[in-house]
Amino acid sequence: MQCWYIFSFILYTLLENEEEFMINKQNLWFVTLFSLILILGIYYVTMIDKDATLAAISESVSNNIKETASVEVLDSSTLVSLRVKEDEEVMAKMEELQTILLDEKATLEEKNNAYDELEVISSYKTKEEELSRLIKKEFDYDSFIKIRDNQISITISSDVHNNEIANKIIKSVQEKFKENKYITVKFEG
Fold this sequence. Notes:
Layout: H1 2-16, H2 25-71, H3 77-102, H4 108-139, E1 143-148, E2 151-157, H5 163-174, E3 182-188
Parallel strand pairs: 2-3
Antiparallel strand pairs: 1-2
Helix pairs in contact: 1-2, 3-4, 4-5
């Protein structure tokens, strides 16, 4: 608010000297540049406070991450490599589909098919995460899940290969679907 008063005072004093309230080019440039400098100065003063706040927040978040990282149990390297491989494949497919969506030469049918495939990929990823949380909650196992059409492949991080647990996992996963799925469970140590 004070800036407006300062600006209006300077404008008033410039106009006071002119009889017909006309501003010559030199005065107009002065008022324009002064207002620009004033606005930039206010912007940078307020940004310093935001940067300090952001720096404090990011520092506290990084400290929290370091604390939780030391407490968490790491997944087996097999699960990590499976996730990375799957993520790379999914990202490549999504980029391909997005290219089709953004292509001006693609037909409406091609764009619709690409959009539908993106929705299917998204729903698969959501369901995979949901099932992974279910297995972690019910059976206390880390898992990697891959869903393709009616096939679900589950890789469990465990040295113990237990058929009874595998059957329970298959039953609990199948309960989440209306139609029958071909579910495989594999234990990796």
